[in-house]
Amino acid sequence: MTKTPFDPALFRADAISAETNGINNAIMQMMAGAPEWWDAGAAAARKDRAEGKGPFPAPVLSPDARTIEIAGVGGVKVPLRIIAPKNPTGVYLHCHGGGWVLGAANQQDPMLERIIKHTGMACVSVEYRLAPEHPYPAGPDDCEAAALWLVKNAKAEFGTDILTIGGESAGGHLAAVTILRMRDKHNYKGFKGANLVFGAFDLSMTPSQKHFGNERLVLRTVDMEKFYDAFLGDKVKRRDPDVSPLYARLHDMPPALFTIGTRDALMDDSLFMYARWIAAGNEAELGVYPGGAHGFVAFPGDLSRAANAAQDAFLKRVIG
Q: Distance (Å, rounded) from C-alpha 223 to C-alpha 252?
């Protein structure tokens, strides 16, 4: 019998630092009274976020970024935002978060620059189509197209065909779906690692999603319900493995790092997916961060610094 990696102490209230409690209280104050995206409309909410209106600051754009377009499913053009150092050690395929409705490839340039600094990899972020204008399977199709393009072109484009993949929240979901599609549809099992950060892996809702309630700590139960309705509608089977990768056969997956905070509505998704990843015979690590809210890696503090350093170390390690 091996010792379980699930340490009960990590999940207790006394494990949460005063700094993290302060950050969470500040988040709730910041979000109090903020408009709901479904009332304002997705397009208006995206515009406000891009301009720094509302609770989140405007994105900081990298002067080193460039955008190319590749062919997607049915002739759709898929933009890829690329930030690359000289002589990259590998390529990180990134899927951004935002509930499949919000977010953009240019809204996490500082995070990608951090990964580049610590791993030497080039970063390629997918500007996938967003719901509700483009519901499932548009977003997953675009991420799959980006992965296929990299498998065929990374060596010529970046001088290396060492590929990793990852994302946050909805991006963690899309990264997992992309790995499965590449394995099952294209017989590609070459990703060296998967960096899955507070991902949504069960879109029929895990217990932590259902029971999180209305505490406005970035992500509530109602937010998940609204995002799923926009992304999937009422006709898509929510436990289809292509929709909820928790229900997929998980053999031949790359080493993975699951990162989750204990005050995140998606906590169970990472706990369950980590367990299933291991049970399928794959290598995996689980980083549990006491008190971390959804998106906590973006809020400066000891917790985010530790989680981001662990992600960088994992990615550097898996590319050798």
A: 33
Non-local (6+) Cβ contacts of 76 within 8 A are: 129, 141, 142, 145
Structure tokens at 135: 């519901």
Structural tokens at position 63: 């002067």
Q: How many CB atoms lie within 10 A of CB 278?
A: 16
Domains of the chain: 17-318 (3.40.50.1820)
- The share of the chain scoring above pLDDT 90, in percent, equals 94
Task: Tell me the pLDDT tens digit for each residue of 145-187.
Answer: 999 999 999 999 999 999 999 999 999 999 999 999 999 999 9
Please tell me whether the overall predicted TM-score, pTM, comes out greater than 0.90 for this model: yes
Between β-strands 256-263 and 284-293, what pairing exists: parallel, antiparallel or unpaired? parallel
How many CA atoms within 13 Å lie on the side-chain side of 188?
21
Q: Are 280 and 176 in contact (CB under 8 A)?
A: no
Q: Average of pLDDT values for 207-233?
A: 97
